[in-house]
Amino acid sequence: MKESEHFERDTVYSTAVRAGKRTYFFDVRQTKNGEKYLTITESKKRFDNGLGKFVFDKHKIFLYREDFDSFRSCFDEMITFINTGEKTGFLADDRLESDFTDVDFDSLDVNKD
User: Fold this and answer.
1) 48's torsion region: left (phi>0), alpha (psi -120 to 50) or beta?
2) Does domain 3-95 have CATH number 3.40.50.300?
3) Whole-prediction pTM value?
């Protein structure tokens, strides 16, 4: 299946934001059972010396309906702190579940999509 066919099949709404050298794609997608979710893709163009051409580094975040409120609250808290220095008290620790697994992000392959 071509990427464009896949895009048309499960993407129901899409928009993009240019931010300097990066582009952020916001896509509402739908599962086979009709549940909608959000993907946010950061895309950055860079020159790959090994290949001798420009390539795009892409990183994706998947947000599901049950996580929207917590994500929005945390996002709003961070924006408020950046703009005003004010901490709103919605602590990140309160959002983490006790069975949270520690992840060593340095060990992840950041070039995989």
Assistant:
1) beta
2) no
3) 0.67
